[in-house]
Design goal:
By secondary structure, the chain is an alpha/beta fold. The protein has five helices and twelve strands.
Length: 262
């Protein structure tokens, strides 16, 4: 049985019509949602792998509610390093927003991991870490799903990409892969944070990051941008053993200007 879903990452939404690095980010997401609605009859759900908000403000999540509640299908989510787990409450309580961190659909189990941790100043770290409890959750979930194919999602990249963003990837990848290597049922690992698309196959598993829904970073020059527009991914699972990942870029032109967060 086929499963098809949309993968969104790094929305970086702000309050109202505020611009993100000169990008009308709310309008960009209205276009994304309009495109999703055209194929909504074909898909089962939407998965967001974090950085729903850019600044973690309550108002930015009001914008997210306005954007994503226009969709009829469930929206599953995990937090990114820009998100605020206290302020996000209003978003996750919206009727079509599903906060489940493990679910099974058409014989495939989805495990959604939180890789966001706090720094000593109480703010979210840019680099990701899977805590001991989150690693145990992963191990237990894989053990409980041995008869199913498994898709794992987290915000921070567990693989190096050869870009300057590697300094901000998942920190404890060794522990992550030690658990994965104890199982043979994980088939797809999804992530974001790096702001560009990537697809890698390791053994029998695919690792995939879609284009960012806000902007694509230059892969070599720190804080510079690529010319590519915002985008998202579409994933099709066929018979729990074939996983096809498609990049979709919006047919729009943006002119981002880097403005450090104040």
């Amino acid at each position: 049985m086929e499963t098809k879903f949309v993968l969104i990452t790094d929305s970086h939404l702000l309050a109202g019509n505020s611009k993100l690095h000169n990008i009308p980010i709310k309008e960009v997401h209205k276009i994304i949602v309009a495109e999703i609605k055209e194929i909504e009859h074909e898909i089962d759900f939407i998965l967001h792998t974090g950085d729903i908000s850019d600044n973690g403000s309550q108002e930015s999540y009001f914008t997210a509610v306005e954007i994503f509640s226009a969709l009829a299908k469930p929206v599953y989510w995990i937090a990114g390093n820009h998100d605020n787990l206290k302020a996000i409450t209003g978003f996750k309580n919206e009727s079509n927003i599903n906060s489940s961190k493990s679910f099974t659909h058409n014989g495939t189990t989805f495990i959604l991991l939180n890789s966001v941790v706090l720094a000593s100043d109480g703010k979210n770290r840019s680099r990701g870490v899977l805590t001991s409890s989150e690693l145990q959750f992963l191990k237990d979930s894989l053990e409980a799903s041995k008869s199913n194919a498994v898709v794992i999602a987290l915000h921070h990249p567990p693989l190096k990409t050869g870009t300057w963003k590697d300094e901000r990837m998942l920190e404890n990848t060794k522990e992550f892969f030690e658990i994965l290597n104890s199982f043979d049922n994980y088939k797809l690992v999804l992530y974001g944070h790096q702001h560009h698309e990537q697809e890698t196959v390791i053994d029998n598993a695919k690792f995939y990051s879609p284009p960012s829904a806000s902007f694509q970073f230059d892969r070599k020059v720190k804080w510079a941008f690529e010319d590519s527009p915002p985008g998202y991914g579409i994933i099709c699972i066929k018979n729990s053993n074939t996983f096809e990942c498609e990049n979709r870029f919006l047919n729009i032109k943006i002119e981002p200007i880097y403005e450090p967060t104040k």
